[in-house]
Specification:
Layout: E1 10-13, E2 16-19, E3 23-24, H1 30-42, E4 47-49, H2 57-67, E5 75-80, H3 89-101, E6 106-111, H4 120-132, E7 136-142, H5 146-155, E8 160-166, H6 174-182, E9 186-190, H7 202-210, H8 215-224, E10 229-231, H9 241-245, H10 254-261
Parallel strand pairs: 3-4, 4-5, 5-6, 6-7, 7-8, 8-9, 9-10
Antiparallel strand pairs: 1-2
Helix pairs in contact: 1-2, 2-3, 7-8
Length: about 280
Protein backbone atom coordinates (compact mmCIF):
# COMPACT_ATOMS: atom_id res chain seq x y z
CA UNK A 1 0.00 0.00 0.00
CA UNK A 2 2.90 2.36 0.66
CA UNK A 3 3.82 2.31 -3.02
CA UNK A 4 0.36 2.12 -4.60
CA UNK A 5 -2.43 4.66 -4.48
CA UNK A 6 -4.98 3.19 -6.83
CA UNK A 7 -8.70 3.91 -6.99
CA UNK A 8 -9.31 0.94 -4.70
CA UNK A 9 -6.96 2.18 -1.98
CA UNK A 10 -7.73 5.89 -1.91
CA UNK A 11 -10.55 8.40 -2.08
CA UNK A 12 -10.11 11.25 -4.56
CA UNK A 13 -11.64 14.59 -3.63
CA UNK A 14 -10.85 18.21 -4.58
CA UNK A 15 -7.43 17.14 -5.84
CA UNK A 16 -6.62 15.21 -2.66
CA UNK A 17 -5.76 11.51 -2.76
CA UNK A 18 -6.75 10.26 0.68
CA UNK A 19 -5.68 6.71 1.60
CA UNK A 20 -8.71 4.66 2.62
CA UNK A 21 -7.09 3.28 5.76
CA UNK A 22 -5.08 5.60 7.97
CA UNK A 23 -3.62 5.43 11.44
CA UNK A 24 -5.59 7.27 14.10
CA UNK A 25 -3.51 8.54 17.02
CA UNK A 26 -6.12 9.85 19.47
CA UNK A 27 -5.04 9.05 23.06
CA UNK A 28 -1.57 7.91 21.97
CA UNK A 29 1.21 9.74 23.78
CA UNK A 30 4.96 9.80 24.22
CA UNK A 31 7.28 7.05 23.08
CA UNK A 32 4.39 4.65 22.51
CA UNK A 33 2.85 7.07 20.00
CA UNK A 34 6.16 7.50 18.16
CA UNK A 35 6.72 3.74 18.03
CA UNK A 36 3.22 3.02 16.70
CA UNK A 37 3.51 5.70 14.02
CA UNK A 38 6.94 4.50 12.95
CA UNK A 39 5.87 0.85 12.88
CA UNK A 40 2.69 1.66 10.94
CA UNK A 41 4.59 3.49 8.23
CA UNK A 42 7.11 0.66 7.93
CA UNK A 43 4.22 -1.82 7.57
CA UNK A 44 2.73 0.10 4.66
CA UNK A 45 0.45 2.77 6.10
CA UNK A 46 0.62 6.04 4.20
CA UNK A 47 -1.95 8.11 6.12
CA UNK A 48 -1.36 9.34 9.68
CA UNK A 49 -4.02 11.34 11.51
CA UNK A 50 -3.37 13.60 14.49
CA UNK A 51 -4.69 16.85 15.97
CA UNK A 52 -3.55 19.78 18.02
CA UNK A 53 -6.04 18.69 20.67
CA UNK A 54 -4.46 15.25 20.96
CA UNK A 55 -1.30 16.84 22.41
CA UNK A 56 0.83 14.36 20.50
CA UNK A 57 1.93 16.10 17.30
CA UNK A 58 5.57 16.15 18.41
CA UNK A 59 5.45 12.40 19.12
CA UNK A 60 3.82 11.76 15.75
CA UNK A 61 6.59 13.85 14.20
CA UNK A 62 9.24 11.74 15.92
CA UNK A 63 7.58 8.61 14.53
CA UNK A 64 7.49 10.06 11.03
CA UNK A 65 11.20 10.78 11.23
CA UNK A 66 12.27 7.47 12.74
CA UNK A 67 10.26 5.42 10.24
CA UNK A 68 12.68 6.27 7.44
CA UNK A 69 9.74 6.59 5.02
CA UNK A 70 10.19 9.58 2.69
CA UNK A 71 7.92 12.53 3.49
CA UNK A 72 6.41 12.53 -0.01
CA UNK A 73 5.02 9.03 0.55
CA UNK A 74 3.07 10.04 3.69
CA UNK A 75 -0.34 11.73 3.86
CA UNK A 76 -0.53 13.72 7.11
CA UNK A 77 -3.77 15.03 8.56
CA UNK A 78 -3.98 17.33 11.55
CA UNK A 79 -6.79 19.38 13.03
CA UNK A 80 -7.03 22.90 14.48
CA UNK A 81 -8.27 23.17 18.05
CA UNK A 82 -11.69 24.85 18.38
CA UNK A 83 -10.21 27.59 20.57
CA UNK A 84 -7.63 28.47 17.87
CA UNK A 85 -10.03 29.22 15.01
CA UNK A 86 -9.82 33.03 14.95
CA UNK A 87 -8.17 34.56 11.89
CA UNK A 88 -4.52 35.00 12.80
CA UNK A 89 -4.59 32.57 15.70
CA UNK A 90 -5.42 29.71 13.35
CA UNK A 91 -2.40 30.51 11.18
CA UNK A 92 -0.13 30.66 14.24
CA UNK A 93 -1.47 27.32 15.43
CA UNK A 94 -0.66 25.77 12.05
CA UNK A 95 2.92 27.03 12.28
CA UNK A 96 3.14 25.35 15.69
CA UNK A 97 1.77 22.11 14.24
CA UNK A 98 4.29 22.17 11.40
CA UNK A 99 7.15 22.68 13.86
CA UNK A 100 5.98 19.82 16.11
CA UNK A 101 5.42 17.45 13.20
CA UNK A 102 8.75 18.43 11.66
CA UNK A 103 7.30 18.91 8.18
CA UNK A 104 7.01 21.94 5.89
CA UNK A 105 3.43 21.20 4.82
CA UNK A 106 0.30 19.43 6.06
CA UNK A 107 -1.55 17.31 3.52
CA UNK A 108 -5.01 17.79 5.03
CA UNK A 109 -5.86 20.46 7.60
CA UNK A 110 -9.25 20.29 9.29
CA UNK A 111 -11.22 22.43 11.71
CA UNK A 112 -11.57 19.92 14.54
CA UNK A 113 -14.84 21.21 15.98
CA UNK A 114 -17.02 24.21 15.18
CA UNK A 115 -17.00 26.86 17.91
CA UNK A 116 -19.97 29.21 18.27
CA UNK A 117 -17.81 31.62 20.29
CA UNK A 118 -15.60 32.29 17.24
CA UNK A 119 -17.25 33.53 14.01
CA UNK A 120 -17.11 30.85 11.32
CA UNK A 121 -16.45 33.45 8.63
CA UNK A 122 -13.07 34.35 10.11
CA UNK A 123 -12.16 30.71 10.70
CA UNK A 124 -12.90 29.76 7.10
CA UNK A 125 -11.02 32.80 5.82
CA UNK A 126 -7.98 31.72 7.86
CA UNK A 127 -8.31 28.11 6.69
CA UNK A 128 -8.39 29.33 3.09
CA UNK A 129 -5.29 31.45 3.72
CA UNK A 130 -3.13 28.55 4.91
CA UNK A 131 -4.14 26.56 1.85
CA UNK A 132 -3.32 29.38 -0.52
CA UNK A 133 0.08 30.05 1.07
CA UNK A 134 1.00 26.37 0.92
CA UNK A 135 1.09 25.47 4.59
CA UNK A 136 -1.73 23.01 3.88
CA UNK A 137 -2.22 21.20 0.57
CA UNK A 138 -5.89 20.52 1.25
CA UNK A 139 -8.45 21.67 3.80
CA UNK A 140 -11.62 20.29 5.32
CA UNK A 141 -13.87 20.02 8.34
CA UNK A 142 -14.59 17.71 11.26
CA UNK A 143 -17.74 17.27 13.34
CA UNK A 144 -19.78 19.78 11.37
CA UNK A 145 -23.52 19.15 11.12
CA UNK A 146 -25.22 19.40 7.73
CA UNK A 147 -26.36 22.95 8.53
CA UNK A 148 -22.87 24.08 9.50
CA UNK A 149 -21.46 22.28 6.47
CA UNK A 150 -23.67 24.36 4.18
CA UNK A 151 -22.69 27.55 5.98
CA UNK A 152 -18.99 26.71 5.65
CA UNK A 153 -19.39 26.13 1.91
CA UNK A 154 -21.07 29.52 1.52
CA UNK A 155 -18.10 31.16 3.20
CA UNK A 156 -15.19 29.36 1.53
CA UNK A 157 -13.33 30.27 -1.63
CA UNK A 158 -11.33 27.02 -1.56
CA UNK A 159 -12.88 23.55 -1.87
CA UNK A 160 -13.16 21.28 1.15
CA UNK A 161 -11.66 17.88 0.44
CA UNK A 162 -13.09 15.92 3.38
CA UNK A 163 -14.94 15.87 6.66
CA UNK A 164 -14.15 13.62 9.59
CA UNK A 165 -17.22 12.20 11.31
CA UNK A 166 -17.87 9.41 13.76
CA UNK A 167 -19.06 6.52 11.62
CA UNK A 168 -19.51 2.81 12.27
CA UNK A 169 -22.28 0.24 11.75
CA UNK A 170 -24.22 1.33 14.84
CA UNK A 171 -24.42 5.02 13.89
CA UNK A 172 -26.73 6.02 11.05
CA UNK A 173 -24.96 8.76 9.10
CA UNK A 174 -27.23 8.64 6.02
CA UNK A 175 -28.08 12.34 6.12
CA UNK A 176 -24.49 13.44 6.68
CA UNK A 177 -23.14 11.14 3.98
CA UNK A 178 -25.66 12.49 1.46
CA UNK A 179 -24.69 16.09 2.25
CA UNK A 180 -20.97 15.37 1.92
CA UNK A 181 -21.41 13.48 -1.34
CA UNK A 182 -23.49 16.34 -2.72
CA UNK A 183 -20.42 18.53 -2.28
CA UNK A 184 -18.04 15.86 -3.61
CA UNK A 185 -16.29 15.55 -0.25
CA UNK A 186 -14.58 12.48 1.10
CA UNK A 187 -15.76 10.97 4.38
CA UNK A 188 -13.14 10.03 6.96
CA UNK A 189 -14.62 7.78 9.63
CA UNK A 190 -13.29 8.06 13.16
CA UNK A 191 -14.20 5.56 15.89
CA UNK A 192 -14.68 3.16 12.93
CA UNK A 193 -14.95 0.05 15.08
CA UNK A 194 -17.10 1.85 17.71
CA UNK A 195 -14.34 1.82 20.32
CA UNK A 196 -14.14 -1.95 20.04
CA UNK A 197 -17.87 -2.59 20.44
CA UNK A 198 -18.00 -4.48 17.13
CA UNK A 199 -15.95 -7.29 18.65
CA UNK A 200 -18.34 -9.99 19.81
CA UNK A 201 -21.32 -8.60 17.92
CA UNK A 202 -23.07 -11.74 16.56
CA UNK A 203 -23.99 -10.22 13.19
CA UNK A 204 -20.57 -8.75 12.55
CA UNK A 205 -18.77 -11.85 13.79
CA UNK A 206 -20.84 -13.97 11.38
CA UNK A 207 -19.85 -11.78 8.44
CA UNK A 208 -16.23 -11.88 9.57
CA UNK A 209 -16.20 -15.69 9.89
CA UNK A 210 -17.53 -16.06 6.36
CA UNK A 211 -14.34 -14.41 5.13
CA UNK A 212 -11.93 -15.78 7.70
CA UNK A 213 -11.46 -12.30 9.17
CA UNK A 214 -11.87 -10.51 12.47
CA UNK A 215 -14.86 -8.36 13.41
CA UNK A 216 -12.66 -5.28 13.16
CA UNK A 217 -11.59 -6.20 9.63
CA UNK A 218 -15.17 -6.86 8.53
CA UNK A 219 -16.22 -3.49 9.91
CA UNK A 220 -13.37 -1.62 8.26
CA UNK A 221 -14.17 -3.40 5.00
CA UNK A 222 -17.82 -2.30 5.34
CA UNK A 223 -16.61 1.28 5.61
CA UNK A 224 -14.02 1.40 2.83
CA UNK A 225 -16.30 -0.50 0.44
CA UNK A 226 -18.69 2.45 0.54
CA UNK A 227 -18.10 5.16 -2.09
CA UNK A 228 -15.91 8.00 -0.90
CA UNK A 229 -15.30 6.62 2.60
CA UNK A 230 -11.94 6.28 4.37
CA UNK A 231 -11.30 5.23 7.98
CA UNK A 232 -8.68 5.98 10.63
CA UNK A 233 -8.65 3.13 13.18
CA UNK A 234 -6.46 3.71 16.21
CA UNK A 235 -4.51 0.99 17.95
CA UNK A 236 -1.91 0.97 20.67
CA UNK A 237 -0.85 -2.57 19.73
CA UNK A 238 1.74 -2.95 16.99
CA UNK A 239 0.49 -6.47 16.22
CA UNK A 240 -2.91 -5.08 15.20
CA UNK A 241 -1.52 -2.65 12.62
CA UNK A 242 -1.36 -5.28 9.88
CA UNK A 243 -4.84 -6.52 10.80
CA UNK A 244 -6.39 -3.07 10.33
CA UNK A 245 -4.60 -2.58 7.03
CA UNK A 246 -5.52 -6.02 5.70
CA UNK A 247 -8.96 -5.20 4.30
CA UNK A 248 -8.23 -4.80 0.60
CA UNK A 249 -8.04 -8.44 -0.47
CA UNK A 250 -11.66 -9.43 0.17
CA UNK A 251 -15.09 -7.92 -0.40
CA UNK A 252 -18.46 -8.09 1.32
CA UNK A 253 -21.54 -9.12 -0.62
CA UNK A 254 -24.46 -6.73 -1.01
CA UNK A 255 -26.35 -8.80 1.56
CA UNK A 256 -23.47 -8.59 4.04
CA UNK A 257 -23.20 -4.83 3.53
CA UNK A 258 -26.94 -4.49 4.16
CA UNK A 259 -26.78 -6.75 7.22
CA UNK A 260 -24.15 -4.55 8.80
CA UNK A 261 -25.92 -1.32 7.83
CA UNK A 262 -29.05 -2.62 9.57
CA UNK A 263 -27.22 -2.56 12.92
CA UNK A 264 -27.62 1.22 13.23
CA UNK A 265 -29.59 2.22 16.31
CA UNK A 266 -30.29 5.40 18.31
CA UNK A 267 -27.92 6.36 21.09
CA UNK A 268 -24.85 4.86 19.44
CA UNK A 269 -22.70 7.97 19.26
CA UNK A 270 -19.48 7.57 21.26
CA UNK A 271 -18.18 11.15 20.98
CA UNK A 272 -20.53 13.93 22.07
CA UNK A 273 -18.08 16.58 23.18
CA UNK A 274 -17.92 19.52 23.08
CA UNK A 275 -21.44 20.02 24.33
CA UNK A 276 -22.17 22.97 22.05
CA UNK A 277 -22.92 20.52 19.23
CA UNK A 278 -26.47 20.19 20.49
CA UNK A 279 -28.24 18.71 17.49
CA UNK A 280 -26.48 16.04 15.48
CA UNK A 281 -27.92 14.91 12.16
Amino acid sequence: MAEERSETLAVHSAGAVIPKIGLGTWQLRGEQCSEIVSAALRKGYVHVDTAQGYANEEFVGAGLKSSGVPREKIFITTKVRPDRLADGDLQRSVDESLAKLGVPQIDLLLIHWPNPAIPLEGAIRALNAVKRDGRARHIGLSNFTTGLLEEAWRLTSEPFAAEQIEYHPYLDQTKMLAALRLHGMAVIAYCPIALGKVVGDPSIEAVARAHGRTAAQATLRWLVQQPGVAAIPKTSHIERLAENLGVFDFALSDAEMARMSALARPGSRNVNEPQWVAEWD
